Amino acid sequence: MVNRRRIIARVVCLVLILIFVPYIVSRIASSWRGLSAHASTSMDAPSVNGRPLRIACYNIAHGRGQSKSNWTGESKAMRQQRLDEIAKQIASVDADIVVLNEVDFDSSWSFSVNQAEYLAEQAGYPYRAEQRNLDFRVLFWKWRFGNAVLSRFPIRDSTVIDFPSYSRAETLLAGKKRGLECVVDIEGTLIDVAGVHLSHRNEGVRTKSVDLLMNVTKPKLIAGDFNSTPTGFPRSTTDASEGNAIDKVDENALFQRRPIDSPSGESEFTFHSSDPGSVIDWILASDDWQIIDYKAIPSLLSDHRMLVAEVMLVSDAQEVESGNANKP
């Protein structure tokens, strides 16, 4: 009887070791894996002389398409085909910089593919930065995903934007939503671009995150899934003190946004892609920039639509206008 108890105790200890040692190691290592930058010199950067900068943002929903669960049961080939289609869509909009949300880095449910790397290669982006929101492992299953910035121009520096936590315990055990700020070198001009994905569960956390974006960080262009739509727009929400994250952007008056008014048709809605009814994805530009064009791209490759904006530095736009005015 004693030997049997010892055997059971040893088996239990072995199982606990198998479960918790990989998990603990993954959580300790997550701090070193939280941010990375990658470059390939196989492509030349395009010229932007006299033309707008085109920036896109896209929550790709881990490549799961319209499914509500990441454990879709589809094959690796099916997921790969969807990634190929996403890459073609990204390439088709001809963006200079692309912000990706809900992109997997070696997650088990997406067959351990680094989606940022794959999309960068397939869509033709020689530079990328990756930032992980969640990063942990249990036995043989890995959860590693977050934000990425793809660029046709060199990324000179990248940092993590540490947003407020929804839960301290959750942050410790698995991670939390954060942002990614990149310094992009566009023909000698350094541009601060931030990719963000704010809390999907709490408007108060989103409002505090916007406070940090407005008052602590220094990006000139901010893009991503804010999970917030302003007062007066369909499906707008507020926190306990009637606060709203996009309203907070407007109150700070540091950034321009589109659409300004509540959309009159579904063409400006970004979510849900199969039944568009709200605007929760945004591209914000500081007053240094002029927004020339802005549109959502209809597609069912994700539950979000991709946003594409054309922006130009005000000083450059004035030069172009002056040059056109002086032409005979």
Automatic annotation (TrEMBL):
Gene3D superfamilies: Endonuclease/exonuclease/phosphatase (3.60.10.10)
A single GO cellular-component term on record: membrane
Domain of life: Bacteria
Pfam families xref list: Exo_endo_phos
InterPro entries attached to this UniProt entry: Endo/exonu/phosph_ase_sf, Endo/exonuclease/phosphatase, GPI-anchor_lipid_remodeler
Entry GO MF terms: catalytic activity
Endonuclease/exonuclease/phosphatase domain sequence ranges: 58-304
Segments traversing the membrane: 7-25
UniProt GO BP: GPI anchor biosynthetic process
Swiss-Prot/TrEMBL keywords: Membrane, Transmembrane, Transmembrane helix
Record's protein name: Secreted protein
